[in-house]
Specification:
Elements: H1 3-20, H2 41-68, H3 72-90, H4 105-132, H5 135-146, H6 150-160, H7 166-176, H8 196-207, H9 216-225, H10 229-257
C-alpha cells in the first residue's frame, strides 16, 4: 500500500532538485574553528557527572515518594528536569555544533542524540499524564466531531509534524485516537491495520520534511551546512509539498479502490 506512494513522493522532489543543480560542482574544503573541546579529562568528567546524576536520580525517586507521599511520576519528572539542566551545563560548549572541526562531528551528533532522547522522554511522560487524566477522550471527541474524515486528520497531523517532530505526532495519535475493533463501520479506518495508520506515517514523514525545523535531520542540516529557514522554504518546501500531495492522492486511490 505504501511502496508506490513513497517512491513517487520521494522521486518528485529529487528530480526537481536535480534540475536545479549545475553540471559541475567545485567542492572547497574549509576547516572550521576549533571549539576548545577534546577527548581529555574534562570530557571524561562530564560523563562521570552525568552518570552520578542519573544513578542518584534513580535513588531519589523512591525517597521523594516516601517524604512527600506524591506519585513517583512527579519525582521522575523532577529528575528528568535536573538531568536536562545538568546536560545543558556540562555540554554548553556543544551548543554551537556547527563551529566544530570535522574530527568532533561524531561528538556533536552524540550531543544532539542526548537532547533528542531527553525530549522524547519528556513527551512520553506528558502524553502519559494527559492519558491518565482522561483528557485524551475529550481531545478525540473534539477531533471526531469537527474533523471526522481519517484522511483529513492524517493530513492535519502531517502539517503539525512540520513544526513538531514526527515521532511526537505519531505517539500522540497512538494515545488519542482509539484503535477500534472494526465493528463500527464509521471507524473502520482506525481499526488495527486500518488505512489511517499507514497514512499517518506517510503524512508525518513528509510533513516533517516540509520545513527544515520539523525533524532532527533538518536541524542537523542547518547546523552543519548553514542552511537558513528562508532558503529551505524558497527552494525545497514547495517541491516536498508537491511530492506529498501526489503521493497522498495515490495512497488514497490504492486504499479505497484497490
Amino acid at each position: 500500500m505504501m511502496v508506490i506512494p513513497i517512491i513517487v513522493a520521494m522521486s518528485i522532489p529529487i528530480y526537481m532538485v536535480s534540475k536545479m543543480l549545475p553540471d559541475r560542482l567545485a567542492l572547497v574544503e574549509s576547516i572550521q574553528r576549533f571549539s576548545g573541546v577534546s577527548d581529555g579529562w574534562w570530557y571524561r568528567a562530564q560523563r562521570v557527572i552525568m552518570g552520578i546524576v542519573g544513578i542518584g536520580g534513580l535513588w531519589f525517586i523512591p525517597t521523594f515518594h516516601r517524604i512527600t507521599h506524591l506519585s513517583p511520576f512527579v519525582g521522575a519528572l523532577c529528575v528528568l528536569a535536573l538531568l536536562w539542566i545538568v546536560n545543558e551545563l556540562v555540554n554548553r560548549t556543544f551548543l554551537r555544533a556547527e563551529k566544530m572541526v570535522p574530527k568532533l562531528f561524531p561528538q556533536s551528533l552524540e550531543y544532539a542524540n542526548i537532547q533528542t532522547m531527553l525530549f522524547l522522554i519528556g513527551v512520553f511522560l506528558a502524553v502519559g499524564a494527559i492519558n491518565e487524566t482522561e483528557a485524551s477522550n475529550a481531545i478525540w471527541g473534539f477531533v471526531d466531531k469537527y474533523v471526522g474524515n481519517s484522511y483529513i486528520l492524517g493530513a492535519l497531523m502531517g502539517l503539525l509534524s512540520s513544526v513538531l517532530d514526527s515521532t511526537v505526532v505519531v505517539i500522540s495519535n497512538l494515545f488519542f485516537v482509539p484503535i477500534e475493533s472494526g465493528q463500527n463501520v464509521e471507524y473502520l479506518n482506525y481499526m488495527q491495520n486500518g488505512s489511517f495508520w499507514p497514512f499517518l506515517s506517510f503524512c508525518t514523514a513528509m510533513g516533517s520534511s516540509l520545513f527544515v525545523l520539523g525533524s532532527l535531520a533538518g536541524i542537523a542540516l542547518m547546523k552543519m551546512e548553514n542552511v537558513s529557514i528562508g532558503w529551505y522554504i524558497r527552494f525545497i518546501s514547495g517541491k516536498v509539498l508537491l511530492g506529498w500531495l501526489v503521493g497522498g492522492v495515490i495512497f488514497y486511490l490504492i486504499a479505497e479502490y484497490c
